[in-house]
Write a structure and sequence with these properties.
With 417 residues, the chain is an alpha/beta fold. 38% of the residues lie in helices and 15% in strands. The chain folds into two domains: 153 residues, Aspartate Aminotransferase, domain 1 (Alpha-Beta Complex), CATH 3.90.1150.10; 253 residues, 3-Layer(aba) Sandwich (Aspartate Aminotransferase, domain 2), CATH 3.40.640.10. It is built from 14 helices and 17 strands. GO terms for molecular function: diaminobutyrate-2-oxoglutarate transaminase activity; diaminobutyrate-pyruvate transaminase activity; pyridoxal phosphate binding.
Length: 417
């Protein structure tokens, strides 16, 4: 591994927790070059909802490349883009009676967020954006300005402005009514709060510690935004594409965001793709006003289309994801009950699950013990205090049980020291 340590930047992170060289991957498994198998409960930080090298998506990709299908086309019309747009509309948007235009902002989630923030400011003529405590929206400057983590914000090197944080759901543990502070500032002409162009929110905060907002909190936020003519941006980059069960993580709340950010698993295969969905009346861009070289990588359109056709024409994957998530949640609750003095907290929704420990040190030890036993997990939360699970939605029931057994052993081992 010396070449990585010699030549690669010190900014690398995941490789420090998983010090091995991976060579192959299939389904829910990664294989190191020495042949050791690792059960992957990380899934590319949520970019691999359908697993590694999913055979159905792989065939579509290989067939497309083999026939010399277009790879790079800026924002030109291609057959692959047309197939994706038609399938997105027919399989996802129309059945949910959703009316949105599609922006291809660039290859990653931060690009989708940047496009939403930029458009919200253009539409409203206002600069300020409301974000929430413990939010994470990306590492570019605009996305960082609405991110909560102080370490990530500190990397910007310049002041991060035009964003005001508000308390996320349960931030005060129910001590105050929802949005008491937010609404008071909005209605008080002496509060000093600049009139916001938009609110940006995750329905489940992934990097922030698997904080799942209550349905009624999301509904209250949407109502507040409508009442005060504030645009609502829903960042579904990590929690969309079925991670919590439904295709969109906010579906159960019945809300209608003005903009929706998607990336990670929208490409299906782990290939770079991001989209920003916007209400048609908000699509006021001039041609080329927001552009970039990699606004639509056609092989990603191919695998994205195949994923939608294969997994989202019925509700089987949604049901399976919810059932597996409930199983993980049940085991986490058992661990909480088994260790009443350890101050553990079970968190999450669907197959976005977390187990909170008293400190990042303890959570890190659990993840390290899991790696030694052949299971990949990461930590999240402001101090890395939450063990975070994002297994592929296609992970089998047997693999879920295998991973949970490892987790139980790791928790017992670490807490008994």
């Amino acid at each position: 591994m010396s070449i990585f340590e010699t030549l690669e930047s010190e900014v690398r992170s995941y490789s420090r927790g998983w010090p091995t060289v991976f060579d192959r991957a299939q389904g829910s498994w990664l294989y190191a070059e020495d042949g050791k198998a690792y059960l992957d409960f990380f899934a590319g930080a949520g970019a691999l909802n359908y697993g590694h090298n999913n055979p159905v998506l792989k065939k579509a990709l290989i067939d497309y490349i083999s026939r010399d299908g277009v790879t790079h086309a800026l924002d030109m019309y291609t057959v692959a883009k047309r197939d994706f747009l038609e399938t997105l509309n027919d399989v996802i948007l129309k059945p949910r009676e959703m009316d949105y235009k599609v922006i291809f902002p660039g290859p990653g989630g931060a690009n989708a967020v940047e496009a939403a923030l930029k458009l919200a400011r253009k539409v409203t003529g206002k600069e300020s954006v409301i974000n929430f405590t413990n939010a994470f929206h990306g590492m570019t400057l605009g996305a960082l300005s609405v991110t909560g983590n102080s370490m990530k914000r500190g990397g910007a090197g310049i002041p991060l402005v035009h964003a005001t944080p508000m308390p996320y759901d349960k931030y005060f543990d129910g001590a105050y009514p929802d949005f008491l502070y937010f609404e008071r500032l909005l209605e008080d002409s002496g509060s000093g709060l600049n009139e916001p162009a938009a609110v940006i929110v995750e329905s489940v905060q992934g990097e922030g510690g698997i904080n799942a907002a209550r349905i009624e909190w999301l509904q209250g936020l949407a109502e507040l935004c409508k009442r005060h003519n504030i645009l609502l941006i829903l960042d579904d980059v990590q929690m969309g594409c079925g991670r919590t069960g439904p295709f969109f993580s906010f579906e159960e709340a019945g809300i209608e965001p003005d903009m929706i950010c998607l990336s990670k698993s929208i490409g299906g295969y782990g290939l770079p793709l991001a989209i920003t969905l916007v209400r048609p009346d908000l699509d006021v861009w001039s041609p080329g006003e927001h552009n970039g070289t990699f606004r639509g990588i056609n092989p990603a359109f191919v695998t994205a289309t195949e994923a939608l056709r294969t997994y989202w024409r019925d509700d089987e994957l949604e049901k399976s994801t919810k059932a597996k998530g409930e199983r993980v949640g049940a085991v986490f609750n058992e661990l909480v009950e088994a260790h009443p003095d350890a101050n553990l907290v079970a968190k999450g929704r669907g197959l976005a699950r977390g187990l909170e420990f008293p400190s990042g040190e303890v959570a890190g030890k659990v993840c390290a013990a899991a790696f030694d036993r052949g299971l990949l997990m990461e930590t999240s939360g402001p101090d890395g205090e939450v063990v975070k699970l994002l297994p592929a939605l296609t992970t089998t029931d047997a693999e879920v049980e295998q991973g949970l057994e490892i987790i139980k052993n790791c928790v017992e081992s670490v807490l008994s020291r």
